[in-house]
Fold this protein.
Amino acid sequence: MKIQYRKIWVAAAALTAVCAIAAPQKKNVVDEVAWIVGDEPIFRSEIEEQYAQERNNIVGNPYCVIPEMLAVQKLYLHQGKIDTITAQESQVQAGVDSRINFFIENLGSKEKVEEYFRKPLPLLREQLVDMIRNQMIIEQVQRKITGDVKSTPNDVRKYFNTLPEDSIPYVPMQVEAKIISVNPAIPPQEIEDVKARLRDYADRVNKGESEFSTLAIMYSEDDGSAMQGGELGFRSRADFVPEFSNVAFNLNDPKKVSRIVETEYGYHIIQLIEKRGDRVNVRHILLNPKVNDKDLKDAAVKLDSLRKEIMADKFTFEDAARWVSQDKDTKNNKGIMMNPETGSSRFEMQQLPVEVAKRIELMQPGDVSEAFIMKDVKKNKDIVAIVKLTARYEGHKANLSDDFNLIKQMYEQHQKQKILKEWVENKIKDTYVQIAEGWENCDFRYDGWLKNPAK
């Protein structure tokens, strides 16, 4: 399923972001103090840990780049204390759970995660809590510092006109598309069979004949939690769809299993693990009734008929999306597909669902595809869809007329980086900094480390 977990972290970057945790300790390194920032030391071992994992990503002398990076983080965290900025613990825990889940999915098991990181999961979790909390605080501090950045069209034009030719980004080919999708009818007997299986699992747990976690590993169709015995980690009500939250947060006996819960993802049974204030940790088993081939084909035939009527101008694709589509994200948006990575309606081809990309690749703007079967990855079910290609933008160097929003984002990011650099250099002036002998001969990114009047 992936029960509407609110995405907090980009999974592809998760492993790199915990590089300091993954790095093995070097026993031959003397744990000397390399820098002191305020009253916070930066140890050589910290620098070596970062270098062990980031050696291929560091530009410049790592023994200059890394300690300066750690020092800047300490400046932001100190400002966070001054401004009493905190990270919401439910979001921290959700971030930790997301990272742990990512590691387990990619490494294969909890045991392999412990082997990779050379530490037990409880210790890894403890270290991740501090790391993610600090990241969230730093991001809030940076947003507060740069919160007033705004741009006018004239600002964006001036910025673009000053860009060197080799700094103007190349924009890959992009498309805009609309979609109509339907969920084929599921035979009532299939639904009853799923419910019967869930009732059987619940009875076996309630009678003490089976462990809920074992049944989840064996049978749950939520790939994100099954290998963890169905455990979802501590979550707030907002982290789940309402139907699931209403039941999960009303459970009181960890030895009992909930009634069957129906959500847009399928059918669940839930078991309480622990409650902590406004958060709850539960296990669940998800089963999703399967659509048979005949029903998929019937739905495809109906959508092909709808396509013919659209092509005959009996009504528009947009009207059909509003009347027929069962995708709640596009139904009331004239069928427009939105890119979850950028928040815009433009997609690079690799950002589209595979089945959609295959059709669009052969289409021209205005074309409507024949019906096809595709996987709704979020809900882990087969659906039937037709798509309309509304626009194709060939790859090109960015320009103001076609890519104004992209250039606007570049300008605002440039301004934010400028403001943050000035803020850091001013903060350095007011902060005690001591750099040990042998660590100071660097071409630092920020001015003031070696001219600090507070020293």
